[in-house]
Amino acid sequence: MTASSFGRRRLLTGTLVAATVPLAVACSRDDAESVQFQSPNVTDTPAARNVRDFGATGDGTTDDTEAIARAFEGITQASAVYLPGGTYRVTAWPAMADYAAVYGDGADVTTVLYEQNGTLIDLRGRQRVNFRRMGFFTTGATSTCFSLSACFRCSFDSVTIRGNHSSSTFPQYENQRGVLLTDNTGGTTFTNCDINNYGIGLTSECIQNYVTASKFTSNRVGVLGTGGDFNAGMAFTNVEFVSDNDPDTTDRHVRVDGPANDWWFTNVWFEGSEVALSIGTRETGGPSQFGMVNCKISARTTCVELLYCRQPYLANIIFDPDPNSRPAELVIDAEHVPTGTAVNLISGVNDDVNGAVFPDAWTVIGRGTMSGPTFTSTVVTRTVQDDVDLLQARDSGDAVTAAVLSDGTWLSDRREAGVVLKDESNAYWRLVVGTDGTLSTESLGTDRPR
């Protein structure tokens, strides 16, 4: 069927029409050159061009490049193009206008197959282009599936993007790329998507973009933040990073290799990698902010390494080993990550995350302990009952050495925990009480007691 055989049609609506004609036929705009075509299988768009109407076969063997290009011909404004279920072999992809939408029948039902090297879909300076319910499979050893440059608010919904990398093919496809975001591309969203089997699944060199309810599987590097211009930033919510336990499959799920913007992970699962997250480099820098909340992290050698970043915040995280491994749960470079906050971190193999991994200036709260807090104004503590201490000092064996009682009384439970004063000559003296209640002093010299 050709474009000329369609003519103008009015949009049919109403309950009776819905019962007798399950899918509406879309009207065109007044301009005859912008006639749109209603797909027999698309119900959530007012109009769509069906690539089958332009000669595409979707049989997996025929080259459908020219037919799909014809479906995009003349489109200079908001429009929808529909690919019914099938496998569409292409050697190139046509240019797309702002607000264009491409739909399929499902991520595992409609597949675009690209067997070349180079970039399949190259969007430059586009706004709100949308891909939905379809899959893309690239097989070229140096291919890139999607490249977005200077694009704004584009979206991927229920899209599978798949390459050829695996432990059995490594390192042949190490240079395959799934998605590349560059040149201030911002507001890109990936929802209910899968990015699998690439040398690098997703590369961000630009401002904030978002991944939600999606999965990265068996990529050599799942996500790479790079560019070195303080712009690369990402936010991940309800996302899985998974792989097998073969060292040739996944090296790092997330790697940020230099100066970057904010990186945030919320409700994210990691398993099957050498290092789950590697953040920053000692030589070049790292994110201006980095945060993880409600995450589970497994790895073979290291769960999280913080090599360079500002203001890291870690909360409600459980660290687990991958099978037959005992990874370092946290590695923190004290010089380049001197401060940070850790709240309720849980070890899957030890009683607790080793407190020695945290630099001195970190604030660490967990399992009834707290270290490294800094207070800048009045600190108030209230007792919940009269016989409960307001404050306690404890030694390394957890025995109480001194306390502030509920009525404000200072109590030293050990002789050596008494009040120490400094005289005018910079010498230190401890107040000592005798068995008869008399007070005396004990010289401690000029070195500050510790």
Number of helices, where a helix is a run of at least 4 consecutive DSSP H or I residues: 2
Strand portion: 35-45%
- First-last Cα distance: 89 Å
**Poorly predicted tracts of residues:** 1-43
Helix coverage percent: under 10%
Give the strand order, joined by hyphens, for the main sheet: 7-9-11-14-17-19-21-23-25
Shape: elongated
Biggest beta-sheet profile? 9 strands, parallel
Radius of gyration: 31 Å
What's the quaternary structure here?
Answer: single chain
Rounded mean pLDDT score: 86
Based on secondary structure, the structural category is mainly beta
Got a strand count?
Answer: 34
Question: Which terms would index this structure?
Answer:
450 residues, single chain
Please characterize this protein's 3D structure.
The protein is mainly beta. The chain is built from 2 helices and 34 strands. It has helices at residues 15-20, 65-72, and strands at 49-50, 59-63, 79-82, 86-90, 100-103, 110-114, 118-124, 130-138, 143-149, 155-162, 177-182, 189-191, 194-196, 200-204, 209-212, 215-217, 221-225, 234-242, 252-256, 260-270, 275-279, 287-299, 302-306, 312-321, 328-332, 341-347, 363-366, 369-371, 391-394, 400-404, 410-412, 420-422, 428-433, 439-445. A 9-stranded parallel β-sheet has the order 7-9-11-14-17-19-21-23-25, with no helix packed on it. A hairpin with a 5-residue loop joins strand 29 (391-394) and strand 30 (400-404). The longest helix has 8 residues, at 65-72. The protein is elongated, with a radius of gyration of 31 Å.
